[in-house]
Amino acid sequence: MKVLIVAPAWVGDMVMAHTLVQVLHADGNPTIEMLAPPATAPLAERMPGVAGAKVLDVRHGEWGLGKRRSMALDLRGGAFDVAYVLPNSFKSALVPYWARIPQRIGWHGEGRFGVLNERRHLDRERYPLMIERFMALGRSAGAAIVKPYPQPRLTVDEDSRRAVVERLALDLERPVTVLCPGAEYGGAKRWPERHFAAVANHAAAAGHAVWLIGSPNDEPVCATIEALASAAINLAGQTSLLDAVDLLSLAKQVVTNDSGLMHVAGALDRPVVALYGSTTPAFTPPLGEAAIVLHEDLDCRPCFQRECPLGHHDCLNRLDPGRVIEVLN
């Protein structure tokens, strides 16, 4: 059987999609390819059980009908038997529909009549976790998902890792603490820079190398932390996504917001301290076996907003760095 997974546009969601890959392999020996935007497609290379990725060059939220139609025509010769559409948007189901893939499975989402021919209605109480919603699509409708759930896994390219360490002249003689202070979703998920700096200074005093890893969008945040913690090495914007995967694999410990890199670190089985502000681990927890979640118990959280609607960001400001340092100790 040949399977196409229409993958999410967020890095963390893409990592969690590996649970569906594992469910499908547990039930047979399918050839699985993923259709993903440029932001997440590289991760397919590092997912055990994924044969390859098709890159759909559309931005997050873009309709891109011409590009989707062109991709669908390319896929018609691929002899796919089934497509699993993980995003809930109408546009995300267009490619497998236009590609004439016989079986097209997904949640009802944005009323996807016609484009999906197996349209399931989500029971949010039965499937509170995002990974449960992904895995359930890989089972027949109504079938139970058996626990323990599979953990997302990413592999490391040792040659690429060696090359990026040499390019950035990184010190591997000391244990490495990695801080991931970014969050593409918005400021309501970003722990304050001064708190990250306090953790960086503590780790450096304990003899660790401290790396700040993030996307180009995280450069201002990481620059502020670097100014407050001179021992921290600011790598934001200097690594590709796969570089970040390889560097995170070297970490003795990772402190991170609820972000895509949190899920990457978990999929590499690194010890993770995950910090939650406006969101909740009840939906997208870190899935590594060595992950600890910290958050403040406030009446106003979780609000799931990109920016604090009350303007105070108490859910993050009041999350004291001493709590993180205690866990790291």
Fraction of residues in H or I helices:
25-40%
- Record field, number of beta strands: 12
Mean pLDDT over the residues: 95
- Strand residues, percent: 15-25%
Walk me through this protein's architecture.
The protein is 30% helix and 16% strand. It has a six-stranded parallel sheet, with no helix packed on it. Strands 9-8-7-10-11-12 form a six-stranded parallel sheet, with helices on both faces. The relative contact order is 0.12. The chain is globular. The mean pLDDT is 95. α7 (193-205) packs across α8 (219-228). The chain has twelve helices and twelve strands. The chain is an alpha/beta fold and 329 residues long. The chain has helices spanning 11-16, 18-26, 65-75, 94-98, 130-137, 158-167, 193-205, 219-228, 241-248, 260-267, 314-317, 321-328, and strands at residues 2-6, 31-36, 52-55, 82-85, 103-107, 118-120, 176-180, 209-212, 232-234, 253-257, 272-276, 291-295. The longest helix has 13 residues, at 193-205. It folds into two domains: 2-137, Rossmann fold (3-Layer(aba) Sandwich), CATH 3.40.50.2000; 158-328, Glycogen Phosphorylase B (Rossmann fold, 3-Layer(aba) Sandwich), CATH 3.40.50.2000.
Q: Summary?
A:
With 329 residues, this protein is α/β, with parallel strands linked by helices. The chain is built from twelve helices and twelve strands.
Please give a handful of descriptors for the protein shown.
12 helices; Rossmann fold; 30% helix; globular; 2 domains; 329 residues
